[in-house]
Amino acid sequence: MDDQSPTEERITALETRVLDLETWNTHLETANADLSDMVSQQWDKIDRLTRTVELLHRRIAGLEPEIQAHKPPHY
Q1: pLDDT tens-digit profile of 11-43?
Q2: What are the strands, taking DSSP E only, across the chain?
Q3: Please, what sign has the CA dihedral across residues 64, 66, 71, 72?
Q4: pTM for this structure?
């Protein structure tokens, strides 16, 4: 039979619960750090893609002939 008193059993149960919560918290902190790193990498990629798109827009704009407002010859 178990020699623990009800108070000792309660303390043991609380210690187990605290340990479980600390373990869970550690996992959450790790997951949070991983997600933060991933978001940072995504923002870096978005910034690079945005700069690339802007550069391509400028290049395309440079290739387009300038449209001049001339009256057609039949006027």
Answers
A1: 999 999 999 999 999 999 999 999 999 999 999
A2: none
A3: negative
A4: 0.60
